[in-house]
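Write out a sequence, fold above all:
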Amino acid sequence: MAKGDKPVVPQKEAEEKKQRDSFHLEDLEWRSQNLGLALMRKKALKKQDLKNENRESQNKVGHAVKLSSEFLASVIVGIVLGLGFDKLTGLLPWGLIFFLFLGFTSGIVNILRSLGHIAPSQLGKNSVSHQNKRVDKFNK
């Protein structure tokens, strides 16, 4: 070592070292900013995913309520028709039993149609398509 407590370094080497350190600091700042942006994007995507999951769960609950209310309505209609049939004919338990069973099966079929396990009814589709063909013939 020379005089004092600082080592003697040529001027050119000192400037190169200073320049490398400044590049290193700029590089670190740039990397820090990119990391911050990436973290913000990830946080935003996570919030969006949570919102989508909440919507999906609400949709599932809504669908379950719809299916259960349709089933319950079918059973209630079967009971009312059965009691009405019994009142008209005087065959007290048999109309109720038959129409309750009919309402139950119609509720099950409606649930299976809503879930897509059974094809939708073709009853209304055929009559509508025939009517459309007739209208087309008259318009020509």
In short: The chain has one domain: 14-134. The radius of gyration is 39 Å.
